[in-house]
Structure formats: structure tokens, C-alpha cells
Structures
1.
Amino acid sequence: MSEHDLIPSIASLDQADLAAALQARIDAKTKPLGALGRLEALMLRLGLILGSETPRLEAPQLMVFAGDHGLAARGVSAFPSDVTWQMVENFLAGGAAVSVLARQHDLTLTVVDAGVAHEFAPREGLVIAKIAPGTADALAGPAMSPDQCATAISAGRSLLRQRPGNVLLLGEMGIGNTSAAALLLARLTDSPIAQCVGRGTGLDDAQLARKVDVLRQVLQRHGEAVTPLGALAAFGGFEIAMMVGAVLQAAAERRVILVDGFITGAAVLVAARLQPAVLQRCVFSHASQEAGHRLMLQALQAEPLLDLGLRLGEGSGAALAWPLLESACRILAEMASFASAGVSERG
Ligand SMILES: Cc1cc2ncn([C@H]3O[C@H](COP(=O)(O)O)[C@@H](O)[C@H]3O)c2cc1C
Ligand SMILES: O=C(O)c1cccnc1
């Protein structure tokens, strides 16, 4: 498949008239100018993405992409790879953090096996789209072949096409995937690896130093992998590549993309390097505790909504931020203006 067929074109949302109308609507509401703070920027963004002064969020899809990483065998995570499939079972059984939050907020939760090293019994809420049982060790060779990378992106796009609604909430699970995300961040922003690496599932100081050392070697081994797709194939993982496809498709369909933490951010970074207008469709849920996320947010020109010290992933931050999007839409639609409520304007 050529890159042209793989990557949809995504137009820039330049709608000066709608932006002006939205701003006037926000400013006319019964409150001092700007008093709803960053919620006002969120209203503007949602209005522009959905092309309406009174945007409505429909059938939100929380999709958790899961995959295993060959590099995990190098000791870059505090947990063993088996936790990936065990947590997939936990998501489906309703016991994980993201399961609880999805239930609380009526979000449709779909878990996607993008490449977990485990055979799952088919059941509702699980999509088996396995590219392979885990990526290869990125220190020994590329994590995936160019073909596998293209297949994963394409699968992410078609999964999105089949889902209803106009909001995608991104989540992921994959032991070792903070390493893949850090590698992508370092390569695509040309940043020192030490600034991109964090403790992930909870490495101590010595383990963190070892992780930095392993990742530095991986970067050296793949010095030629400088394009977004080249870096994605070199570093992995399947769940990240599938999210790249889902993000591109969601953006092409003008859905709102609610981005979670460090790993989903890496997928958005790759997608944005392929199609910069993707970023106009994104809302960033939170600032993660993972070191490197600050740099990633800068690269994504993102102002996250929450700062709760989260470092979990799964889409838990996206699910927590979801009610703010609902509030933004309701305020645009339902809050009175000075004129409609008969409230005196500023003297
Ligand atoms: C029980 C458990 C539940 C999780 N839920 C998300 N993650 C998070 O941790 C992993 C990334 O960290 P690292 O790169 O250090 O392996 C991902 O699977 C991520 O979603 C979890 C990790 C654990 C252990
Ligand atoms: O920010 C995240 O997404 C994150 C941080 C640590 C571990 N897993 C995920």
C-alpha cells in the first residue's frame, strides 16, 4: 500500500466566521468576560471541530488498544509482559480503572487486541485485530516490518470507520510501551532521550538509568529511522500504530479526539507529523506524571485540562476529563445570555 492510500488527507479547519460567532456567543453569556477560563477555549475548540455554535457530543467511543513489546524483555518495565493480557481480561471483566470510569460516564468501552502475546476468547467488547503476538525486540532489529506497520494503521482506520458517534477517547495497554513512546518522542522532536524517559510503571533510580541506557542504544541502532512511519516501525508498538490509524481516520471524519496520557500522545505525535491538521481535532485530557510528557505536550501545542498527578494510561485520564466536554457543550447550548436573561451588562 502506498503512503498516499494509507494516510487520509485532512483539511485545516480554518473557519474565521464560525470562530467569531462562537466567541461572541461565549462572551454574551451571563458571566464576566473570560470567567469560565479554559472551559471557554474548550467550547471554542469543540464548536470548530463539530462545525456548530451548539455542538453535540454523540455516542462517545472509548477505545483501549493493547499490544506487547519485544523490548520489554530488556528490563525496561517494572512489570512482566503477562500483565498486558491480564489487564485486558480485567478491562473486559469491568474491574480496571478505565472500566469503572467508562461505566460511570456511559462511555462505550472497546478493547482492541492490536498485538498481545496471548490468545483471547472472543467476546463482546473485544476486537481481535492482532498483527502479531507482540513486536520484535527493537534493540535487535525493527520492532515491526513496514508491512506490519501499514496493516496496523489501516486496521485502526477501518475500526474507526465502523464505529458510530463523533468522539473518540483514546486508551492503551502494553507493558513496555512508555519505552516505545519515549523513543518516538526523542526521534520525532530531536530531543535528548534522558528528557523523554520516565519511570513508567514505577522503576527505581537504578532501573530508570538502565532504561535510559537501553533506549539510547535502540536510538543508535536505528539512526536511519527519521520519518514518522520509519520511526514507528523501528520502535513500535502495534497498539501505537493502530492508534495512529484511528486518530487519522477520526480526524478525517471530523470527530473530537480526546487524548489520554504519554502513550496515546505519542500516537498523536506520529499522526500529526503525517497530517498536522490532526491537532485541531484534539483535546488533551491531562498532564501525566510521566517525565517526558511535558515535552510531548509542548510538541503537540497542547494545553491539558486536568493536572491530577495521573500516571496510569488505559484511557483513565480521557474518561475523567470527559464530563468537562459535556459541560462545555451544555453551557454553549443552555446558558443564558445577558439579553435573554435580562441581566445588566458591565457599566
Ligand atoms: C497493573 C497495571 C495496570 C496498568 N494500566 C495501565 N498501565 C500502564 O503501564 C504500562 C506502561 O508502563 P511501562 O512502560 O513501565 O511498562 C502500559 O501498559 C500502561 O497503559 C498499567 C500497568 C500496570 C502494571
Ligand atoms: O501517561 C501515561 O499514559 C502513562 C504513564 C505511565 C504508565 N503508563 C501510562
Note: The beta strands are 61-67, 108-115, 126-128, 167-173, 256-259, 282-284.
2.
Amino acid sequence: MQSRTASQKTTLPFQTLSALRAACLSLPESDHNISTAIAKREAKLTKPLGSLGRLEELVSWLGQWQKKSSPQLKHVQITIFAGNHGVTKHGVSPWPSNVTAQMVENFKSKGAAINQLAAHAQANLDVISLNNLKPTADFTTQPAMTETEFLDAVSIGFQSVSPNLDLFCPGEMGIGNTTPAAALSYAFFGGKIHHWVGAGTGINKAGIKRKSDVISQALQHHHHTLNDPLLVAQSLGGFELAAIMGAVLAARHHNIPVLLDGFICTAAVLPLLKLNSKALDHTRLSHCSAEKGHQRLAKEMALNPLLHLGLRLGEGSGAALAIPLLRAALACHTQMATFEEASISQKTSS
Ligand SMILES: O=C(O)c1ccc[n+]([C@@H]2O[C@H](COP(=O)([O-])O)[C@@H](O)[C@H]2O)c1
Ligand SMILES: Cc1cc2nc[nH]c2cc1C
């Protein structure tokens, strides 16, 4: 496993918000000729058309973005982005912030759930600690990050994605990060605060009330930023969320399909969607988290989760669990016999 503390300042791709905005607005498209080729083969395979349900669509999605009519999953990367949060001083998480660094060590020594799930999925796992795990500012009174801090974090995420990948899965670790995730969701979709605020790592009712109050205060403080998705991400997000946003943007520029993880990961890429309604076409949502706001967020973002397992761990765990599903989909598409090869009669009427 590679682990980085990601504080280098040289040749970062985004020196200004307008450079980042331009990269979000001008995005490559998938190759629709590939989906036609894949659909043609799918129709010849020894099963009623459509009978493998979403597995069929997943093969087409992988192929369109990889630009391969026989998509592959040789180079699969899970990267955990770790960061800390100034809002934790308001008691929004039951865990102390030093658990973020302790879990980073646990990832490095292969003791965490994601280490087992990544190995099972035959995926490479890296961890990147943002800002040396120094926390964001308390966003109830200041932007979570300065413009430079935000751009650096986005740039580090962007640069972390190697162009040769077949699939990229961002994960995250950050005590307190369900609060910025809920704040971003509420800032972009409104509704009632309590729709977005859940127990995270297990906070009690009083803690959930504190989280809601913190978010309400933060939105009042940053109301002037709410019409600009990048300023919202800078003001209400976090280092690891910004890095995830940058990484998912990079994957798009390299035509790499992405599996999104849980509530925090989904909220992290929401600014991309708000800037460009096609920005997440190269992604699929691996699972629906048990965290309260995730189902609503997925619906608002028109993301249809592949798995419902009651997970609420983060680390990229849901994405890791969906990788074997993608491998199964590819195995069927590439290795099944056609009707002709297996001498099976085709259907006689429609
Ligand atoms: O992925 C999810 O949906 C998810 C839901 C709840 C908690 N988490 C993880 O728990 C941590 C944040 O929870 P909290 O209570 O400290 O805000 C962070 O490290 C996340 O990876 C993750
Ligand atoms: C132990 C622990 C492991 C985690 N993994 C992701 N978030 C986490 C939060 C805690 C508290």
C-alpha cells in the first residue's frame, strides 16, 4: 500500500477557482458506439435479453467509459482520502479526532475492514492524508478551507488518479465528516435539516441536535456562497471531500469509470453535479448507506445504488463490495456462449 501525506505544492493542476470551474464544465463524453457493440453481443448470449438485469447495463457502462467493447478490470484502485474537521469541537461525533490518524495507521498495517474487502476484490488500496491531518476551520464562523487550501486538496485528489486505471473507487476517513456531508446536502437540496442529519458513527439524540444546530448556523454564516457550488464546497466541505471531488473529476478526464461509496463520498461529488448535470455520468453508486441522508441524497442526484447492505462505515467499503459484482457482470458478458455456439434455439415470437 502506498500512503502519502500530500502536502506538496509544486505543479498543482488547479491554481485558481476559474481553472477548476473550467475543468468541471468541459468534460469528455463516453463512446456510444461501444454500447452498440456491447448490446449486439449481449443479444446473442444464451439467456433471455435483459435477464441479467443491471449486470448488463454495468458492462455497457464500463465499456463506454473505458472505450473497450470487451471491458476489463485489471487495474482497480481504491484510494482512501483522510482528513480532519474543525467542527468536531462542537461535539458532532462521539469519537475523538485522533482516531482519523489512528485509522490511517490501521489501513497501513492492513487491519481495517477495507483492507480485507480490497484484497477480496483484487483491488489496489492506497491512503492519502490531506493537510497532514490538520483540521479544517470551524465552518460555523469561517470557511472550512481557504481558497488555496481547497484548491490544493482538489488538486491532490486530481493528481492521485493514474490514467491507466480500469476502475477508480474513492473512499474516505475523517472523524466528524458526516457533518460537512449533511451540510453540503442541505445547502444544495434544502428541505428540513433533520432529513440530512443522522447518527454517523453512533452519536445520540442530543448529538444529532447539536449537528443540526451547527449546520443551521453554518448555512446562515455562508448564505452568500450558496449560489456557487465551488464556494459551497470550500466553505462547508472538508479536505478529504475536496480531494474526492478532484479525484472523480480526474477520472472523468481520463475516461475511467468510478464506483462511489457512502454518504460522505456522494456528498463530496455533489458540487460537480451542480456545476454540470452530466458530471457524474461516469460514476455508479455502489451502495445505499444506513446513514440517514444517503437515500434521499441518492434520489436527489438520480443515483441508483447497486447494494443495500446497511453499511455505514465509509473507507470505500461499499465500493469494494460492488467490485466483485462488476467482475461477475464482465465474466458473463465475455465468457458466456452465444446461442449459435451452444446450438440453442432462439425465441420464436416477440
Ligand atoms: O459512508 C458512510 O455512509 C458513512 C456513514 C457514517 C459514518 N461514516 C464514517 O464515519 C466517520 C464519520 O462519522 P462521524 O460520526 O464522525 O461524523 C468517517 O470516518 C466516515 O468514513 C461513513
Ligand atoms: C473505528 C472507526 C473506523 C472508521 N472507518 C471509517 N470511519 C471510521 C470511524 C471509526 C470511529
Note: The beta strands are 3-4, 76-82, 124-129, 167-173, 258-260, 283-285.
3.
Amino acid sequence: MGRFPVITVDGPSGSGKGTICSLLARELGWNLLDSGALYRLVALAARHHGVALDDVDALVILAAHLDVQFSTVEDQNEVTIILEGEEVSNSLRTEDCGADASVVASLGPVRDALLERQRAFVTELGLIADGRDMGTVVFPQAELKVYLTASAEERANRRYNQLINKGLGASLQAILDDIQARDARDMNRAVAPLKPAKDAISLDTTELSIEEVLASVLDQARHKGLR
Ligand SMILES: Nc1ncnc2c1ncn2[C@@H]1O[C@H](COP(=O)(O)OP(=O)(O)O)[C@@H](O)[C@H]1O
Ligand SMILES: Nc1ccn([C@H]2C[C@H](O)[C@@H](COP(=O)(O)OP(=O)(O)O)O2)c(=O)n1
């Protein structure tokens, strides 16, 4: 760590981190860390093993020994995630799993257990790191730190449309309530709360298209000599 370039993208649920990070990784040819997936995997493993979400010792063991494989199929955007031999790519993305992930992520010892696993994603190619504390805790030395925001209503609309497009039923009000509860938990926890790093560039994406956000971040990367 330290010698290779890192761009961090932090922000609340639905601000566009995952979308922008995968486009950035493709455009720059860099590695990608979806740190939220690691917290979601701990939550899912807890469910599979019947571990309660407040059983810190058992959760730490699960986090430290996550048996997971990430694989990308050539020419496909989607990453396939295998947990303990079972494909979990879809169950990982549910709103329930996101809410459970936010609960286990509030526990300091669970965060500590995932720290080195996250830093190991750095390669000489460079790394795009997507999460809540990428710029503040995990990669404080990153060359470029981006903090994405958008109004809670816009973020709920985006999630709603995402679920409808997948053919899943959804209630806009329930999604908005969930987003607000998750924002409050992620921003107010004692360890590694969601907030912009002091040297982060904040971008409000409420009125911006995906293309405009991507162009703006690539512009910042160019200013820093990263491309
Ligand atoms: N600037 C934007 N304008 C409109 N829709 C967006 C924008 N950014 C992302 N989206 C859409 O919003 C949804 C949530 O985006 P996602 O990247 O998963 O957010 P996050 O990773 O921050 O939770 C996706 O369906 C995505 O296509
Ligand atoms: N670096 C991170 C990434 C995610 N988390 C926690 C807090 C989030 O609510 C959950 C799920 O994160 P994820 O990025 O997958 O969720 P969204 O796609 O933004 O809805 O995990 C975290 O505490 N720190």
C-alpha cells in the first residue's frame, strides 16, 4: 500500500458509488473494491450460520474467515460472488441484506477484521475503492477522494426504479424510510462514520446524469495526473 494509486468514492446508499466506480475501473483499467459487499457478506454468513447481529465475537470470526470468491466473466459487467461455495450475487443486493450489513458495520471489531482484506485489493494497476470510510480510514493516503451525495428522495427514486427494472415489487415510501434509517446509522456510529474526508471533493449528483458524474471525476483524476 502507499506506492500504488488509489481513488476513493464514499457516500450514502443510492448516491451512485457502485455505478461510477465500475465505470471508472473500466475506463482506467484499475482494480475495483466494493467494500459494501464485504459487510453484506458478513451479514449473509451470519444469517446462514444462525449468528445474531449483535454477537460480536462470532461475527468477528465470520469476518476474519470469509470464504468468498469474486469472479468477473469476460465482457460482462457483473461480478459473480460465491460465499462458501454458493452463488450469492443476487441475495447480497437485497435491501434487507443492506440493512443487516449496516448493523454489523457499526461494530468496531468487525471493521478491524475486514481492514487488511480491503487493503489487499490494491495492485500496481491502481485501485478504485467504493464504500463509506475508504477516504477517511482504509486509504487515507489516496491520491483522489470523492464524496458523492444526492437528496434522500432522489436516492430512493433511483433504488425504486432499479428494483422495478429488475421485475421486483417495491414501495417507494418503504425504500425512503430504509434509506433514511441506514443514513442515520452509518453517519452516527462511533467507529468510521460516513463523512467526507477533509481532502475529499464533494459532488451532489441529485441533478447530474451518470455521464456527467463520470466526466467530472475523470476530470479530477486528470488534474491529479492519474490518467
Ligand atoms: N447520477 C445518476 N443519475 C441517475 N441515476 C443514477 C445516477 N447514479 C446512479 N444512478 C442509478 O441509481 C441506482 C443506484 O446506484 P448505485 O451505483 O447502486 O448507488 P450506490 O452504490 O451509491 O448505492 C442505479 O440504478 C444507478 O443506475
Ligand atoms: N466501507 C463501508 C461499506 C459499507 N458499509 C456498510 C454500511 C452500508 O449501509 C452497508 C452496505 O453498503 P453498500 O455500499 O453495499 O450499500 P449501498 O449499495 O450503498 O446501498 O455496509 C460500511 O460501513 N463501510
Note: The mean pLDDT is 95.
